[in-house]
Amino acid sequence: MADRLAVTRRMFIVSTALAMPVVAMAEGAGKALYRNPKARIEDRVRDLLSRMTLEEKAAQMRSIAYTKSRFLEGDNFSPEKAKQVFVNGIGQIGNPSDTNGTARVAKDAYRAVGETIDLVNAIQRHLVDNTRLGIPALFHEETAHGLKARDATIFPIPLGLGSTWDPKLVQQAYELAGREARMRGATVALSPVLDLARDPRFGRVEEFFSEDPYLVSQMGIASVRGQQGQRPLAADKVFVTLKHFIHGAPESGLNIGPADMSERTLRENFLVPFAQVIKKADPAVIMPSYNELEGVPSHANYQLLQRTGRERLGFRGAYFSDYGGVTNLVTHHQMAANDDDAAVLAIHAGVDAEMPEGQAYARLPELVRAGRIPEASIDAAVSRILALKFEAGLFENPYLNKSRALRQVNAPASKALVRKVAQKSLVLLKNDGLLPIDPAKPRKIAVVGPNAVEPLFGGYSSVNAQAVGILAGVKAAAGHAISIEYAEGVQIVKPDPTGQHLPARAARYADAAENAVRIAQAVEVAKRSDVILLVVGDVPEITREAIHAGAPGDRNSLNLFGDQDALVDAMIATGKPIVALLINGRPLAVNRLADKANALVEGWYLGQEGGNAFADILFGKVNPGGKLPITFPRSVGDLPIFYNKHSSARIGQRYVEAKPTPLFPFGYGLSYTTFEMSAPRLAKSTIAVGETVIVEVDVTNAGQRTGDEVVQLYVRDDVSSVPRPVLELRGFERVTLRPGEKRTVQFSLDPDSLAFWNIDMNYVVEPGTFTIHAGPNSVDLKSVKLTVA
Question: What does the sequence similarity comment in the record state about its family (predicted)?
Answer without folding.
Answer: Belongs to the glycosyl hydrolase 3 family.
